Amino acid sequence: MWSSSRAGSGSSRAGRPRSRSRSRLPALVILLLLVLPMAVGCVRVRTSLTVSPDDRVSGQIIAAAKPRDAGDKGPQLLNNLPFATKVAVSPYSRDDYVGSQAVFSDLSFSEVPQLAGMNRDSAGVDISLRRAGELVILEGRVDLTTLNDPQADVLLTVSFPGEVTSTNGSRVSSSIVEWKLRPGVVSTMNAQARYTDPSARSFTTAAIWLAVGAFVVAGVIGGLAWHSRDRTPKPGEPVTTRD
Hints:
By secondary structure, the chain is of the alpha+beta class. It has helices spanning 2-39, 198-227; strands at residues 43-51, 57-65, 87-94, 97-107, 125-132, 135-143, 153-159, 163-167, 170-171, 176-180, 186-194.
């Protein structure tokens, strides 16, 4: 009896691990389903900036991810900016990625850093543009330490209207620079481009037109003076008569 009881007891215990194994299987499946989206290339963040010769900025921001389910719309950009009329936000869906994109135009240098406020998860993003004489300087910092997707597609592209004189990014051309930002680290960006200060250009143009205007006015005054001159013959001068 004792031996059969032990045998039965052993048989019962032998069955328990199989029961636990079965009960843990759904949990492992759920865990894998949760981890899988983060283990593949599921994040796409692309920002492009184009600086015009008059120091205005246009471009677009794409924030997207591979959806976890049919109802997942991906990351959303919110147009709660003080210059909302310069920004248009629309849904984004391409290459199995969903999310949103923002297209903006005619931004001043001081308005560019405020674009980071379009998403609550972009607190670690800081990009600024400023002018120093004939140079326009871009400086930026992006904190991706919370992004653990090694295949994340995070790209910043900046196009200047003049030659890029120095940068820590990759030169696409003499005036275009891009940065492929690595997940899990803090990245810094810097670039300098040389082109004429629009205020100086405006001053030069105004000076040219002022000079042209001065010559025109001088010519008009000279012409009027010539036609209105005193034509009375001076003593000793012959008197001319018309036939």
